[in-house]
Every structure is written in C-alpha cells, then in structure tokens.
C-alpha cells in the first residue's frame, strides 16, 4: 500500500481532464469545472516552473474554454494537437477524415442516442446516452474505418474515436518531457480512462508516478477513488507549495468545495480500510484497489467502458 505524497517542486504534472480534473457528466458539453480549480492549477503551474500540462482527448480549444483564462501546455485529441510551454502549436499532419465522417453520419443519425463529433484531428462517436449500442458502435466504426491507413480506433469511456495512428497520451507525455521546463523532472500522470494507460506506462518508463482516478487493473502505481479526491490533492499540494500554509495538508484540503475533501477522505478510508493516516489522501496500488471489495463495479476488462 503506498500513499500519494503532496506534489514536489521538482515534479512535472500531466493531468487528464474529464473524469480526472472534472466529474463526468451525461454529455461532454455538460461537464463543469469546480470553482477554485483554475486558481489551484495556476498556483501549481507557477510553483512547478511551468511544468503542468493537460493531456486530454478533447481539443485544445475546448480545454482552454473550460480553464479560461488559464492556458497551460496542452496535448489535445490524445496528443494529435500539442501546445508546448512556449505556447507554440505543434501538430501532426491532419488526417483526411471526410470520407469516414460521411460513412458514419447516416449511422449516427439513425440512432438518436449517438453523437458524432468531428474534431480537427479525430472523429468520435459518443454513446453515453445509449450504452446498449456499444458493440454496434464498435463494429460500425471498425467497418467504416476499413483499411484506411494512418488512422486507428481508440475506445474510451462511452466513446469510440478514430485518430492518427501511433499518437497516444504516452507519446504526448514523452514529447513534452523532452523540453524545458519539463525535461529532467519526475513526471506524475493522473487519469481515469483506459486511454490514460499509455500515459501511465510512459511516466513509469520515465521513473515517474501514475495516479489512477477510479478502480481497475492499471499500470498506474497509486489510485484515488474519484475526481473530488484528485482535486483535493491538487488543492492541498498547491497550498503547501505556495507558502507553507502551516496547518498543512489537513487544513488545506478542507476548503470550501461542495462535497469535496470530507467526502473524499471518507471515501479513501472506506475503500482502503485502516489507511486513514490523516494527512495525505490514501491510495492503494491500483491493482490492489481494483481487487478491493467496494461496491464500484470492478471492471475486469480494461478495454470495456461500462463505468
Ligand atoms: Mg478522462
């Protein structure tokens, strides 16, 4: 059993957005950013010398809108879009998605619970409103993709995406870590989805730490139960880094966030019995957490998304 220490000034931080920084919502556009989160991210960005990046399946434009006015180094569309610490945009060549889009349009329109999303570098079919269509969506996207080269399918939570082949959250982390201010730091990657496993594997390869939000078998080395727990950890770390709010982690975590720290702490104690050490969020090795008996529907297959 290992715990999640507060963030160190020598860390580099990589954060997924949906299901990690923000609670999931019935539809992607309904996701809300908790009050105080942007301020905490700004503090961490300053205290870590700029080494805080967002790594998400969303576009950079969407992420900027959620976190405005903050603009962090960001990998969007699973790394197909990239904005480095200097604000420069590095993009892989845009794939030709028109034909694929046309092929999937009729299918999506025939099923009201589906939403076909066209991104600059990817296509996504969301089925959160019709989870029973998962298998059909997979089949239809695979069929539409056919033998098109340079593109590949990616299966996330309630979504099937088509994106440039070989681009992953792991490759994004690897690329960002090559340059200042990230280079030479110990990376921490926090994420919730199966698409984050590439990020966990990459930070492990680089000697860093993966933080899984949720419970399932994972390459992450620690886990927290829910986005509220992850945010509480960020808030406490920011306060500690920002000047030693000396009452420390415990007090810092108790800020005015609805349902946040106290429930987060309780959840941690529930899930990992006997680990309520009182300061840090308690976190178990992800594999052990996945085997733990809490009622959160352990998912034996990392490639399905019934969460
Ligand atoms: Mg996510």
Automatic annotation (TrEMBL):
Pathway: Glycan biosynthesis; trehalose biosynthesis. It catalyses: alpha,alpha-trehalose 6-phosphate + H2O = alpha,alpha-trehalose + phosphate. GO terms for molecular function: metal ion binding; trehalose-phosphatase activity. The keyword Hydrolase applies. Keywords: Hydrolase, Magnesium, Metal-binding. Its EC number is 3.1.3.12. InterPro entries: HAD-like_sf, HAD-SF_hydro_IIB, HAD_sf, OTSB-like, Trehalose_PPase. Its cofactor is Mg(2+). It holds the Pfam family Trehalose_PPase. Residues 244-307 are annotated as: Disordered. Residues 260-307 have a biased composition (Low complexity). Signal peptide: none annotated. Coiled coil: none annotated. Residues 244-259 have a biased composition (Gly residues). One of its GO terms (biological process) is trehalose biosynthetic process. Belongs to the trehalose phosphatase family. Removes the phosphate from trehalose 6-phosphate to produce free trehalose. This is Trehalose 6-phosphate phosphatase.
